[in-house]
């Protein structure tokens, strides 16, 4: 059997690339070593975490957030088994959906471990150890990423006491004390889940701020709001040891600026210190595929590796490790392989942290603009001044828009607030079209909506907001 494209890995990068390539008339196979398609995102990442984030937020609201609305409920009881069943059912319907889309688009989905033999040849080994060799014009490496662990610290992740995000999605009971190592996206999302369900969560983070890389004002506000929910933060703290101790574990950290080390105990420790590209066992060195200094598959602007006919997309190459970045690369590569012009605009990739409230961002932060010496103007609008937010008691947070001082072109948008992950897309579309804050401020927005705060922030950027 000979293919136009064989894709190794069926995560958002791989499966989307496969569907797009098939839609464009190419003969496609996808090799996946998990029993189900969808990769980390659908099986043990984005999708199950969102199921638990939603369910745990409902639990929290039932216990804390409804009295003042005149909805008096007695204290809710947690049925963690049912909550996990909801998560599992969500995952199943999503991974089944990918299998359906493969069939619909006549894509050959092959369960087994893929290995590149050479350009044009891929071997697949199934769980019985049987190997077959497939021929193809093009190979796409879409193998994603794996838990990186703590740089320079040996940690034995057993997924029950010392866990990665994978274990953090399947705990059998709510730990009384949870330590989260790393105040990035995974740490805050899963920390929120278990905090809402009753765990005392402490986040230990190396940097002086959580969500490093986000706009400074945004990460400060997010930290303040999460602290109000009971999450404790140890910032500027470098974790140097995580060891099991009886039924729990001990975490040792020292101030990054120097000073005495401290050790704290927990029932569960979540390691959320980043992910690394997954390249093991793929035959890359034998095939001569070059990696960069950070172990990522090196690619050019057209996703080509140094070996003709072998390409890379998603977490395994440079750029933010985000499912939607991988998807867009998958689409662009499929277009290139079909002889069209595929392109990803890396300047306009939104990022969302699904805490409550959500934190969302697109384009440049204020710190980045300052560092680049770009003259900019800022417009901000708080949700406290938004009617819909007041009606829903969702007044935490604000919208911040950054625009070029001369041209008024919007360069960045940042939102902390209920539904931020949805609202960020109007700034994203605006930026994709090179729009200005005046364009956004003069666009009619339905009243009453949270999105009016986006319009008001745009008005504040180019002149003055109305409702402040
Ligand atoms: P991350 O890179 O977002 O955060 C890791 C944090 O760990 C950093 O703030 C870092 O300073 C800290 N750290 C590293 N070593 C440390 C030490 N020794 N002591 C204390 N702190 C230390 O990584 P995370 O949260 O594990 O996420 C991995 C990837 O998955 C990211 O690229 C993220 O974007 C992606 N992801 C995205 C989601 C989303 O878009 N909603 C959800 C979950 C993951």
What is this entry, summarized?
The protein is α/β, with parallel strands linked by helices and 468 residues long. The chain is 32% helix and 25% strand. It has helices at residues 12-23, 39-44, 46-64, 80-104, 165-168, 185-196, 216-228, 284-287, 323-337, 366-372, 387-391, 420-432, 437-441, 452-462; strands at 2-8, 28-32, 108-111, 113-118, 121-125, 131-141, 145-147, 162-163, 177-181, 200-204, 232-234, 237-245, 248-255, 262-266, 268-271, 275-277, 310-312, 351-353, 358-363, 376-382, 398-404, 410-417.
Structural commentary:
The radius of gyration is 23 Å and the shape is globular. By secondary structure, it is of the alpha/beta class. α1 runs parallel beside α9 (323-337), α3 (46-64) packs antiparallel against α4 (80-104) and α3 (46-64) packs parallel to α6. It starts with a strand and ends in a 6-residue tail after the last helix. Strands 1, 2, 3, 4, 5, 6 and 17 form a seven-stranded mixed β-sheet that branches. A five-stranded parallel β-sheet has the order 8-15-9-10-11. β13 (248-255) and β14 (262-266) form a beta hairpin. The relative contact order is 0.12. The chain has helices at residues 12-23, 39-44, 46-64, 80-104, 165-168, 185-196, 216-228, 284-287, 323-337, 366-372, 387-391, 420-432, 437-441, 452-462, and strands at 2-8, 28-32, 108-111, 113-118, 121-125, 131-141, 145-147, 162-163, 177-181, 200-204, 232-234, 237-245, 248-255, 262-266, 268-271, 275-277, 310-312, 351-353, 358-363, 376-382, 398-404, 410-417. The protein folds into three domains: 2-147 and 276-337, 3-Layer(bba) Sandwich (FAD/NAD(P)-binding domain); 162-273, 3-Layer(bba) Sandwich (FAD/NAD(P)-binding domain), CATH 3.50.50.60; 351-462, FAD/NAD-linked reductase, C-terminal dimerisation domain (Enolase-like, domain 1), CATH 3.30.390.30. Bound molecules: 1,4-dihydronicotinamide adenine dinucleotide. The site of 1,4-dihydronicotinamide adenine dinucleotide has 27 residues, from α6, β12 and β18.
């Amino acid at each position: 059997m000979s293919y136009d494209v064989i894709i190794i890995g069926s995560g958002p990068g791989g499966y989307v690339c496969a569907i797009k390539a098939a839609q464009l008339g190419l003969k496609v196979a996808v090799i996946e070593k998990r029993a189900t398609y969808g990769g980390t995102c659908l099986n043990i990442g984005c999708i199950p975490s969102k199921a638990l984030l939603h369910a745990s937020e409902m639990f929290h609201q039932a216990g804390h957030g409804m009295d003042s609305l005149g909805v008096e409920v007695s204290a809710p009881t947690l049925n963690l088994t049912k909550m996990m069943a909801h998560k599992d059912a969500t995952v199943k319907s999503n991974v089944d959906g990918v299998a359906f889309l493969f069939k619909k688009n006549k894509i050959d989905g092959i369960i087994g471990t893929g290995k590149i033999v050479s350009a044009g040849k891929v071997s697949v080994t199934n769980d019985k150890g049987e190997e077959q060799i497939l021929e193809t014009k093009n190979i796409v490496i879409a193998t994603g990423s794996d838990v990186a662990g703590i740089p320079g610290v040996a940690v034995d992740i057993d997924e029950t006491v010392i866990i990665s995000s994978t274990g953090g999605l399947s705990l059998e009971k709510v730990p009384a004390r949870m330590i989260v190592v790393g105040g990035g996206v995974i740490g805050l999302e899963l920390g929120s889940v278990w905090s809402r369900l009753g765990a005392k969560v402490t986040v230990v983070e190396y940097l002086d701020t959580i969500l490093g890389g986000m706009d400074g004002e945004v990460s400060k506000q997010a930290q303040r709001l999460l602290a109000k929910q009971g999450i404790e933060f140890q910032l500027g703290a470098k974790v140097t040891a995580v060891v099991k101790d009886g039924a729990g574990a001990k975490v040792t950290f020292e101030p990054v600026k120097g000073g005495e080390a401290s050790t704290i105990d927990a029932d569960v420790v979540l390691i959320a210190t980043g992910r690394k590209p997954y390249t093991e066992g793929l035959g890359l060195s034998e095939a001569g595929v070059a990696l960069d200094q950070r172990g990522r598959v090196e690619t050019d602007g057209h996703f080509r590796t140094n070996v003709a006919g072998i390409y890379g997309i998603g977490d395994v190459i440079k750029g933010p490790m985000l499912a939607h970045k991988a998807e867009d690369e998958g689409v662009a590569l499929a277009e290139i392989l079909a002889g069209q012009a595929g392109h990803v605009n890396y300047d306009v990739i939104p990022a969302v942290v699904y805490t409550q409230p959500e934190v969302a961002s697109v384009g440049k932060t204020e710190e980045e603009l300052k560092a680049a010496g770009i003259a900019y103007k800022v417009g901000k609008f708080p949700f406290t001044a938004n009617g819909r937010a007041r009606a829903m008691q969702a007044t935490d947070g604000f919208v911040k828009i950054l625009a070029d001082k001369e041209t008024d072109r919007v360069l960045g948008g940042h939102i902390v607030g209920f539904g931020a992950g949805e609202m960020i897309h109007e700034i994203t579309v605006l930026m994709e079209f090179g729009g200005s804050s005046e364009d956004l401020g003069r666009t009619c927005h339905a009243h009453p909506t949270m999105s009016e705060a986006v319009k008001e922030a745009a008005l504040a950027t180019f002149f003055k907001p109305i409702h402040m």
